[in-house]
Design a protein that fits this description.
Thiol Ester Dehydrase, Chain A, 5-stranded antiparallel sheet, 4 helices, alpha+beta, single chain
Length: 145
């Protein structure tokens, strides 16, 4: 069980990799972000993306799934009060393999609730050497003691 004490500043947590599935990407876009360049190959080619591209929200949801599978599902997580940065740095296309990670930036005890730790982290997705997604958020984890 991952608790606050297991998430010190500087820890990097590899979250694995995933190859973007075209059908899954299109299903997401149809439901949640139906912009033409996320739905249609020709519209994508005629956009600044140069091809059918994933919604940034889809990329964020892929990261979140890896975070839940690797960290949150077996942790003392108490949710999140939010974040302060969200960047889609490069387009993601069907067939791209993304590598996900989280880096703990800061970790401190809550002043109001000392049994609770606040962990600020940077979540990232890379396509090869290129970062395509980054966000900074805070997670709340209870401590063991």
């Amino acid at each position: 069980m991952i608790a606050f004490e297991d998430l010190p500043a500087g820890r990097i947590i590899p979250l694995g990799e995933l190859t973007v599935d075209r059908d899954d990407m299109l299903d997401f876009a149809k439901k949640f972000d139906p912009q033409p360049f996320h739905l249609d190959e020709e519209a994508g080619k005629n956009s600044i993306f140069g091809g059918l591209s994933a919604s940034g929200w889809y990329t964020a949801s892929l990261w979140m799934r890896r975070w839940v599978d690797v960290v949150l599902a077996d942790s003392t997580s108490q949710g999140s009060p939010g974040g302060k940065e969200l960047s889609w740095l490069a387009p993601v296309y069907p067939g791209d393999t993304l590598t996900f990670a989280a880096e703990v930036l800061t970790a401190r005890r809550s002043k109001k609730r000392p049994e609770l730790g606040l962990v600020e982290f940077a979540g990232t997705a890379h396509k090869g050497e290129d970062m395509v997604f980054k966000f900074i958020a805070t997670g709340m984890f209870t401590a063991r003691d």
